[in-house]
Amino acid sequence: MASAREIRRRIKSVKNTGKITKAMELVSASKMRRAQRNVLATRPYADRLYDVMGELTMRSMGGSSKHPLLQPHPTVTRVALILITPDRGLCGALNSNLTRAAARFITEQKSQGRSVSVIAVGKKGRDFILRAGQKLDSEIIGLGDAPPLVDVLPAATTAINGYSPDANGNYAYDEVYLLCAEFVNTLVQRPKLRRFLPVEAPGNAGATKVDYSYEPSQEDVLDQLLPRFIEVQLYQAILESIASEHSARMMAMRNANDNAKELVRDLTLTYNKARQAAITTEISEIAAGATALNQ
Could you tell me if 30 and 159 are in contact, meaning their C-beta atoms sit under 8 angstroms apart? Predict the structure, then answer.
């Protein structure tokens, strides 16, 4: 058993750690609320853009638009994955769940004879891809807690340019997928994988209630609006991932703080036992010494 002094030193160290985790929990809670407000603030624009896209994709060219971002490629041999992860750790199992889902996706695609390129948004995902030796086409790190839309555009542009045909009619990507953390609630954040390109027509397409007139033509509006739609979808996913990160970190720090308190209780009990044992030993030695002097 460790000495009482050593146990007391451990108690002090654990208490200091508990203060740090408590402070990090409070900071993460504040950032999580701010991130949720950012998601809610952009939702009206995203929802309205979603409705307009539904109108255009059904109306444009008689409901059969030939826009390259809407058309699937006949064969799929090159796949891109937009991987959105936090820049930092200490957020529970969020990073490991995302990287595990990414590894599973890459393995499945390669088993079908497809090559996979990664567009990494976040330092943890980028580091994982580099360690795994996978192809990294683009990276964005250091976005912060409230990134502006302009900072997200390079990832969206890489995906759009890769899926669109070049001057020779060749494609860098035949499909693009998006993997991010879905914010379910404060306690639950799970990886969400979905196809990003080609763009699927919104589910409410065809439910036209107003006969809009477009100037210029519907095709011209669609050409300009479709890239913006893709950028907003990616931006929404990044904001949701930021909210998931802070929520996961808040819960991880709360659990760490609770564990620190429990450890302090256990160490305090052990400290009291060690101190009592030391006192008992000293009393026994004094009693034995007194007995020897009397004899």
Answer: no
User: What gap in Å lies between CA 240 and CA 38, rounded to an integer?
Assistant: 9
Instruction: Tell the residue number behind the tokens 């564990």, with chain if given.
Output: 259
- Contact of 246 with 35, CB cutoff 8 Å: yes
Tens-place pLDDT, residues 117-128:
999 999 999 999
Question: CB-based contacts of 201: which residues, under 8 Å, 6+ apart?
Answer: 53, 54, 57, 58, 70
> What is the token pair recorded at 121?
């948004």
List, for residues 271-295, the tens digit of each pLDDT value. Answer: 888 888 878 888 887 877 777 778 7
Q: Which of 19, 43, 115, 40 is nearest to 76 (CA)?
A: 115
Does 180 participate in catalysis according to the annotation?
no
Q: What are the CA-CA distances from residue 76 to residues 109, 113, 119, 174, 229 (Å)?
A: 10, 9, 18, 5, 23
Answering whether pTM is above 0.70, one says yes
User: Which residues are bridge partners to 182 per DSSP?
Assistant: 190
Catalytic residue among 91, 129, 140, 251: 91
